[in-house]
Amino acid sequence: MTGDVFIYAEQREGTIQKVAFELLGSGRKLADDLGVKLGAILIGSGVESMAQDLFAHGADTVYLADAPEVEHFLTLPYTRAACKIIEEYKPEIVVFPATHIGRDLAPRVAQRLYTGLTADCTGLDIDPESKLLVSTRPTFGGSLMAQIMCPEKRPQMSTCRPGVMKPIEPDTSRTGEVVKVDFESVDADMMVKFLEVVKEARKTVNLEEAKIIVAGGRGVGSENGFENIRQLAEVLGGEVGGSRVAVDNGWIAQDHQVGQTGKTVSPELYIACGISGSVQHRAGMMGSTVIVAINKDPTATIFKVADYGIVGDLHDIVPAMTQALKDMD
Q1: Distances in Å between the alpha carbon of 163 and those of 33, 99, 120, 266, 309?
Q2: What is the pLDDT of residue 203?
């Protein structure tokens, strides 16, 4: 029994996802607080070369399940591979990303291991007295923060949203151990076969990776009103986000939504235009390095969390900012 901290290192099409490095950053602190090692579960085909990136971002050991059957994510083979690693090496804590893959995989793993799972966490800590994992997550629509512990079952398991945890500065000189785990799927796991990857034709947005986000809310007023938001985002080289109200009104697509029921983001610059600053929206963007708020209501809650605030009509201010930035070129 290792008693170590494990994270699931998500890879897609041969690329380690940014959220894996974020989980390693959080996992490194948990492991150090417990005085144990940090392990990364890596599943795929021909992915052993990715281990060095995981070492550089804090992993001590990479537990590798490498087989043709798991080249692409399929729920049952990946569940079997993850459970085999966890059952064999018995970590104290396992953290998965709250991505589409992680939200599919983690509950199945928890069920097979007969343990609990705290989902969509925004904070992970070690209780100094009990040495148990303390998983913090929003509840009641984001109005309260719950702290959850699992005192009896093992491993203690949680999922964390992308963009919440901070990766550590990579150290390319770090090395570690690759532990290869023999894995063979069974016929019962292969009820679904992966035939081909079909790329979606429409352009999708990856807010979790964006360094700059310009987001619009109720104050934008209409779908046409988002054109000014898009122009400012374009001149800044950023992405467009939206509040739940903007999405519910059909002014912008759902994959642009930031907040408790949307995406959690941590860009270097977040410009909130016409967004009042509800607790649900703040839960999705509080990790931003610099927050700029534009709102004609000087009492708007968003100003309480903003680093810079501009009181005024966004329909005048945003175009003026865009033009000023263009004139600087």
Answers
A1: 22, 11, 12, 5, 24
A2: 59
Report how far apart, in Å, the C-alpha atoms of 231 and of each of 64, 236, 303, 321 are: 45, 9, 23, 10
Q: What is the mean pLDDT of residues 286-305?
A: 91
Count: domains in the chain: 2
Q: Residue 82 maps to which CATH number?
A: 3.40.50.620
Same domain, 168 and 26: yes
Is the same domain home to 90 and 169?
Answer: yes
Q: Are residues 299 and 153 in the same domain?
A: no
* Domain endpoint, select from 159, 189, 219: 189
Q: Return left, alpha or beta for 184; rule: phi > 0 is left, psi -120 to 50 is alpha, else beta.
A: beta
Nearest-angstrom CA–CA distance, 286 and 270: 9
Cα–Cα distance between 287 and 285 in angstroms, integer?
A: 5
Domain of residue 42 covers 5-189
Residues listed for the chain: 329
d(CA 235, CA 213) in angstroms, rounded, equals 12
How do residues 192-225 score in pLDDT, each as one tens digit?
777 777 665 555 677 888 899 999 999 998 988 8
**pTM of the full structure:** 0.72
Question: For 56-79, what is each residue's pLDDT tens digit?
Answer: 999 999 999 988 888 888 888 899
Residue 20, both tokens: 């894996």
Q: Do you find a cis peptide bond into 267, omega within 30 degrees of 0?
A: no
